[in-house]
Every structure is written in C-alpha cells, then in structure tokens.
Amino acid sequence: MKWRWHVPTRSFLFRLIAANTIIFVLSLLILSVVNYTFTNMISEKQISETHRKLLDQTNANIEMLYERAFRVGEQLLNDKDVIKSLYALRLDPADSLVLDRKLHDAVNANEFINSVYLYNGATGSFIHSIPQDVEIFDIDPEARRLVHVRSGLGKMIFLPHRQQYVYSGKHYDNPILSLIFIPSDARSEYAIFINLKLSALQELFDKMGGSPESSFMVTNKNGILITRSDKPEAFMDAASGAEFMGKVMKSGNVSGSFVDSISGSKSLVTYAYNDKLEWYLLNATSYAYLTKGSFILQRNIIIISLLLLFACFAATILMNRKLYGPIGNVVQMVKGSHPATGEAAGGSGDEAAYLSDVFKNLIGKVTSLEDSAVKHRERLKESRLKDILLGEPATDETMKDLHSALHGIRLHSGPMRAVAVVVESPVQREGSVADTGIRLVKDTVFELARRIFQEREEMEKVDIGRQMFAILMHEPQDHPSTHRLNMLVQQAERVTGFRMKIGVGSRAVSIGELGQSFEDAREALEYSFVDHRRMVYHFDAIRASMESSSRYPVKLERSLFEAIKVNDRKEAGRILGEWFGALRRYAPADIRAALRQSVTTIETEFGTMADFTPLLRDYGKDSLYGIVQHFAELERVEAFYGELADFIIEQLKMNRHQDRADVVRIACEFIGNHYRSSGLSAELVASELNLSVPYFSKLFNEVMSVSFTQYVTDLRLHEAEQLLLATTLNVKDIGERIGFQNSSYFITVFKKKNGTSPNQFRKMNRADRVAE
Fold first, then answer.
1. Closest CA to 599 of 629, 636, 573
2. pLDDT for the residue numbered 207
3. Burial, 574: exposed, middle or buried (Cβ in 10 Å; 0-12, 13-18, 19+)?
4. Are 240 and 219 in contact (CB under 8 A)?
C-alpha cells in the first residue's frame, strides 16, 4: 500500500492560507503603487522647499557679510583722522603713520576684508592698506571707473572686479567685491573703498553642506556670474550660467524653482533675488541624486516584503500543525467541536479556559497596538512642534493638521511664550550621564512646571537636544514671573541634582510665532556669558537693558597699548575696567566679536615684541582667541586680559623696553636738543616716542609735575636770561634764537615770569654787577 500526503483542498486551514497569501500579495502591490505615485507627487515640492531654505540661509549669510563690511565703512567715515587724510592735499609723516595704523587695524581685525582704499579726486591719488609698495593704479586699475559708477547708483551695492598687480616678479590676481562710501559733505571724487575677498562668499557656500551633485551660484541682475561653488575660478563670466540663467531672467520672479536639463542631466534649479544687493542666488542639484532615496526606499520595501512572504510559506510548510493548530481548535470550537487535546473529549471547562486564553492574548495585542499608536501620535506631535520652534514656517494647512490629526495638543489660541530650559551638568556627580537619565530629568522638570503653573494646564514639552528642551505655555497673568521660575529651578536642582538655567522668550500670539519666541529664549540664555549668577533670563528685560548698537573702543585700545609699552600696570587695569564695564551693556554676540577683534589686534601689535608661547602652553591653546573662547563667563575673560597685560609687560621688560621714567627721560633729552626750534611740539615728541599726544602729555605731567608747554618755556626763558646778560644781541634776535618767532609774545612770556621786560632785566642785572 502506498501512503500519500493528502491535503484537504476544501479544509478551512487551506482556504485561510490561500486567502492570506492573496491578500498579502495584493497589499504589497497596492502599497508599492501608492508609495511610488505619492513619492513622485510630493518629491518635487519637498525638494524645492528644502533648497528654498538653503537659499534663504545663504541670502541671510551674504546680507550679514554686507552688514559687517558696511559697519567697517561707517566706522571709517566717522573717524576724523581718516576723513582729514581723505581730503588732505599732502600728508605729514605723523598723520600718515596714524592713518596707516587705522587702515591696517580695519583689515587685520576682519578676516573677510582684503584691503581699504582712500581716493582723493582733487589730487588723483590713492591711499591704501596693501602691504606691497606699489602704485594703486597697478593694484586696482578699475578703481577710478568704479568711483564714477558708484556716484551714479541710487543705493550702495557690491561692485565685483579684479585686483591685479605684479610685485617682486610675482603676479597677483585677486577677485574682490568693493563697497564704496562717498562722504555726504563731499563731491563724488572723494571715496572710501572697503574691499572684500571673494573667498568670503565661497566659505559661506562651504557651510551650506551641499552634496557633490549640487552647486551654488551668485550672479548680478543681468545674469553675469560673480562666483560659483564648483568653479571658483569662473569670475564675472557671462557664459558660465547661460544654460539656465536665461530662464531665470525671463521668469520675472524674485524667487522660484523649476526642473531643467543642466549639462545633459535633469536638475532642480532653485533661485532667489536679493533686492538690496541686486544679486540672484541659485542652487542647481541633480534630480537623480535628490530622488535616489525614494527609489531605494521602494526597492527595500519590495525586497523585505518578498522575504516575509517566503518566510510565511516556509513556516506554513515546516510548522503547519504547530503554527495553525490553535486557530483550527478555535474554529472547531466555534463550529461545535472540541479542541484536540490528545485525550478524550472532556467537559466544557477546558474549552472555556482555552477560549479565554485566546481572547486575553488578542485583547493584550490590541491594547499594545493602541498604546503604540498613542506614543506614535505623541512623537509626531512633538516632532511638528520641534520643526516650528527650529524655524520651519507654520502654514494654515500644517496648523490644521497639528490640531486635527494630533488632537492631543494642549495649546490653542491666545498669548503664549516659549521657555528654554538648559540642563547643564550634575551637581554631585562626575562623568557623563546616559540619555535615559537626561530624559527622566527633563520629564521631572516638566511635571514640576505643571505643578508650579497649575493654573495653566495647557503646556507642552518639546525635546530640542540632549542638553535643552522647551516648555510652551499660555502666558500667565504675571508673565512667567521670575519668582516662580526661580522656584522651578531650585526645586528641579534639589530633586534631580542637575544645574538648570532658564531663558524666557518673547510674547507669541499664535503657535506659528513660537519659533521666534524660542529663538529669543535661547538668545536670552546667551546673556549668562555676561552674568552667570542668574538662573532665569528674560529676553524682554535683557533687550531693554542693552544698548541698541556697539562701537569698538579704538581709542581705549590705543591707550591700553601705550600704557603696556611704558609698563604702567595701574593705567592698563583702569582702561580694562572701563572697557569691560562698557562691554556688559552690549549683546553677547557683539561682545564676542569685540573680544575676537581685540585679541587679534593684540597679537598684531605685540607679536614681534613678546613671545606668547608660554601663556598658550599653560592654557593648552594655539591662539589668544582660543583661550578667550574657552571661557564661559565674561568675568573670567576680564581676569585673563589683566593677566595678559601683566604677561606682555614682563615680556617687554625682558626685551629691555622702557618704563614710564625712561620714556620721560628720553623725551627730556629730545626736548633739550630741539627746544630752540620753533617747530617743537608735543605732537612731534609723542610721534618720536610712538605714543598718542594725550597719553604723552598725561605721562609727562605725572612724572615731571609740570606740563610739556611750561617745561619747554622754562628752558627757553632760562637761556634767554643768559643771552641777555652775556651778549649784546637785541631782544628780537634772542627770541628767534630760542624758538620764539613773535618778539611781542616773547616779551609777554618773559615779563610774566620775571616781572620785567627783557631790556629792563638786562639793565637791572648789569647795574647790579657794576655796583658790585
């Protein structure tokens, strides 16, 4: 007898397997078709929005570069010495030295500036900061033409051109962007050039993180290329973007996107026009590269689905009875049969227990799925709120989705504020803390906030990063008071053992404005650099207490350098105290910019006189700014500047630089050799000593206990007395010999000191000698 493997074709189990297989295959096909269609429908829109954001960010960065260059130009326009030199027909050596220092300070303190020119149309001459000793016509042959172009413009824009010259046998070719400032009280032939390196734009492109398949461009309003990220050597090239720039120009739109064939491949082109700079900003990215992720996702879905289908078939064949036996028993029980237990059919108690277990399993799975769905909705809600806080625009459609699909949100209309909470570090623990511990701390702080602001139950928590999260709340009547927020920080630190700082953002009238409120809250937290003793930082209060604009203290800086050069620790400390007192009234970003400029200037000023290596080695840094950047508190920075001043003074002493008394002694020797000259002045002596006139006068007065003018006058009158008694020269000749060009003035000064005129003095003293 032959045994056959018999499969009951009409059994319920067979029909169930067949139905599952058919449904699975159909679901797979439908899922793939829907996914493919949906991806093609939305990919272009999503890609366009993504690149629009990149262009907006590039636009903002370029405008920031413009503002920084504009600020330097305004500073030079407001500098009396610069304007005096701009109008001068001829510069004397002292004025030339001062101007040269100021122009080089402007270039050295700002890494994006290539050079500065002063153009005097009356003389046709240029003064410039280029270190090579060549004529301006050789350096920048376009400069004269650009001055005339600028005078015909209604507003100030970057004028791109080349800076070309040959020096010491080497050819220099620098593409630059010039901002040209014309003083309001002058004709157009007087101008100040602020020249930016084109590489500054290239660095902005590098920060965008574009793929190898993507390139950024900047063109003027006529479509002439200024720079291109993948071809930086293409400068002012009309043909470089001709493939699609014509389409951009014809569109007449200030921004937009389209798909076109670029260099033989389909590409997404996104563009935006900046009216202030009169530039087009463009991004071209290979479409195949952008949609590559969608096709990979579809392929992976199909492969994984086929593997699951194969696994189902294998499990059905190998574990038929073990896998489907319980289902068959339930079906038989429903039809009136008994489950196969391996024993004779028993009472109904076993069937009821079995059925109860099956349904408990099903209920447990359904509950688990429901919990998973709730968690998914919470994650989706927090993700959407996080996008809003981090700057993604909230349209009416997205807000509708946020309120309907994510119906669990606890914020609706009305005034709101974003509160940024920073978890700094454990108070009583060392080492890193696991992410799960940080999440627990954040949840604890949020629950404490709901208790403290219990009248405002409509609150949301949004996790921003490992160290920060945001609490979104309706604005209480007391405008999240400092008292209650301090209470929140104290309770949170006591419960969790972590240090906390809170920043309170500006008022938001809708959920869409919470992004700006959160940005303001983070900006308020930056103020901890200025005042680290607080626990709560209110953006509104901090902004009201700050000055609207900051100015770099060039005069204080020069006075500080002079005090250091003459070993005057007390004066250096006083100047530093005055400067840091003024810094505390500025925004943290302006403070850090001023600090960076100051240490750069210090390194330039004293780099050849002092060796900073021991100081850098002690702090483990490779630059002074690296040390300053390391400090999280302005107090520590101020203490370091005091230490730096002492360090430089000691270095200068080792290099045999003079102290205060030596400087005045040298001044007196110079005066003693030149006091007979009518051209002797405090300006001349100060220039000889490389000091400013006010500081030299103050130093001379303190050491000699007499003013410079009185000291010189006393020397001249003493010699006049000797000449009156020892020679027969007339009064006019004596006055001219000792430095008085005006004899009337000489007689007045002499009479004021001696009580008699020079002739009376001569007669009286000669009569006394005869009588003796």
1. 629
2. 64
3. middle
4. no
In what helix (H) or strand (E) does residue 653 lie, and over which residues does it extend? Answer: helix 634-654
How far apart CA 396 and CA 512 sit, in angstroms, is 9
Sheet (strand 468-474) strand order: 459-463, 468-474, 416-426, 498-508, 536-538
Is 405's pLDDT higher than 50? no
* Burial tier of 211 (Cβ tally within 10 Å: 0-12, 13-18, 19+): exposed
Hey, what are 508's tokens?
A: 């938001």
Residue 536, strand partner residues: 502
How many whole angstroms separate alpha carbon 433 and alpha carbon 442? 13
pLDDT of amino acid 331: 46
> Which pLDDT band holds residue 398 (cuts at 50, 70, 90)?
low
Tokens 């109008």 found at: 87
- H or E element at residue 495: helix 482-496
54 Cβ contact list (under 8 Å, min separation 6): 208, 210, 270, 283
Q: How many CA atoms lie within 13 A of 642 on its CB side?
A: 13
Burial of 116 (0-12, 13-18, 19+ CB in 10 A): buried
Helix (H) / strand (E) containing 472? strand 468-474
**Structure token pair of residue 553:** 């203290």
* pLDDT cut 70: percent of the chain above it: 71
Gap between the Cα atoms of 688 and 459, Å rounded:
69
The amino acid occupying position 608 is T
Alpha carbon distances (Å) from 118 to 67, 126, 140, 554: 20, 6, 12, 20
Instruction: Tell how far CA 177 is from the center of its chain.
Output: 21
User: What does the block give as tokens for 94?
Assistant: 């002292």
Q: Rounded to a whole number, what is the distance in angstroms from the first to the last CA of the chain?
A: 171
CB 237 within 8 A of CB 200: no
Task: State the Cα–Cα distance between residues 445 and 433, nearest whole angstrom.
Answer: 17
d(CA 599, CA 596): 6
DSSP for residue 475: P
From 292-301, 521-530, 608-617, 736-745, the region with the lowest mean pLDDT: 292-301
Please enumerate in sequence order all residues whose Cβ is within 8 A of that of 377, keeping only pairs 6 or more positions apart, or say none.
406, 408
- The DSSP output letter for 413 is S
Check: CB of residue 421 under 8 Å from CB of residue 484.
no
- The CA angle 471-477-481, to the nearest 5 degrees, is 60
> pTM of the full predicted structure?
0.42
What CA–CA distance (Å, rounded) separates 312 from 303? 14
How confident is the model at residue 139, as a pLDDT?
Answer: 80
471/23 Cα distance (integer angstroms): 46
> Biggest alpha carbon distance in the chain?
172
Residue 89 near residue 170, CB atoms below 8 Å: no
H or E stretch at 170: strand 170-181
Which burial class, exposed, middle or buried, applies to 362 when counting CB atoms under 10 A from its CB (0-12, 13-18, 19+)? exposed
pLDDT at 335 over 50: no
Main-chain phi, psi angles of 689, to 5 degrees = -95, 0
Asked if 411 and 511 touch (Cβ cutoff 8 Å), the reply is yes
Instruction: Decide if pLDDT at 336 tops 70.
Output: no
**pLDDT value at residue 84:** 83
Tokens of 677: 């000259």
SS (H, E, C) 236-293: CECCCCHHHHHHHHHHCCCEEEEEEEECCEEEEEEEEEECCCCEEEEEEEEHHHHCHH
